[in-house]
Write the structure tokens for this entry.
Amino acid sequence: MYKKIKELSNNIQGELILGIFGDGTLNSEIALGDHIEGLIKNQKISTKLGKVTTIFPTGVENLEKIHFIGLGEKDKYDLNKVATAARDIKYTLGKDLIVDTKSFIANDLTEIEVVKALIYTIDFYNYQYLECKSKPEYQEVNISFITNISCEAFDEFVNICEALKNTRDLVNKPYNYLNVNDLVKYVEDLVKKLNNDKFKLRVYTKEECEAMGMNAFLGVNKGSDIPARLIYLTYEGSNDEPITLVGKGLMFDTGGYSLKTKMNTMKCDMGGAATVLGVMEAVVKNNLPVNLRVVIAATDNKVNSGAILPDDVLTAMDGQTIEIESTDAEGRLTLADAICFAQQEGSKVVIDVATLTGAVVVALGDYTTGLFGNDQELVDKILNSAKEENESLWQLPITDHIRDRVRKSPVADLINSTGRDMGASGAAAFLEAFVKPETKWLHLDIAGTAFTTSPRYREPYGATGAMVRTLYNFVKKN
């Protein structure tokens, strides 16, 4: 789909994409002819940010059309504006598009920053999930970029886009297309496909999880007819201390006996698992010199005669007991044992990613991920990674008062829900209780950002791949 080229030549055919600023500035070395230069001079081409003006050129060999993209006021131009401008560079314009990246560079922006923003934005808005259509009509588009950045950097961005696509595909699949067994098969196929000696997989059976004492995780699985599985991926690209990503793998969440009144889109409750798999895929494809691990406790949360009930008490892998206030606060139960497992395997840096609480959506909305952590230096590093990747991430608190609420149970060490109050922070405080003092820990609540049902910026309905780029950046730099 994507190709890097250095310059236009006689054998390149297609439709040219050029950015144009509000003052008529056109940062391109391509000769467009007197006719088009006259249109620019006479303000016949819109420079409004994101506005597309299509011209059928004369005298420009092999180019069928030129699409001018308005870039707005030059003095206010930044990477956010690059992304906004690039939203309509998609299959609706044509099948063979050539982007002159130099025309999108201004102010202090570097070419590599601009190319990165263009590729990510174009890929995001060209995404299509058509697997469940009886007659899928995939709109193919081939995009070439005129750029001088290295092939290594260009390929890295393209590999990340492929991992993002796979992440979004996983989250968009309905449960009858992707249950626990299907996820295990997907991961097995991914390991075979990437074919890297540094990349290993171990899948633990339900019986092996029982032997490890993972009764919080397995408690959620008691209502299911498909046995739980613990997925453990390792990539040893260096001898550094490992970073472990823990992804919430709830393949579908009915709420259990605390039944949800509305459960549409609960197929996306494995968004954390898909996210960490996407990060791992990008890391392996780009052969990063890092030591990365991924842990996914995979199950669904269903109801049958054996399912857990409110007031039940479960014992987690580390021996702590948990009173079940709500069977719909199930994700944190699976994550608790997964975090214990990650630490048992020797990781001193653990980051969990989960579509965990509706409360974080109330607090931050649909476009900002909630962040918690026990190490401010680590928090600051991932906030910086998010800023560099143009993803919105916001730190939220865990106070002693919230910790006390999580430990308010009269019959167990912990209670699994604080109710409507302090929902996002209460869930984070619960997870924190399973983090050892020597472990640096971050928790990303992607409940609002992993899946969009009401797109506000013309993005495709469904999975977003939120935080894959941020976590990749973080892992690469740390």
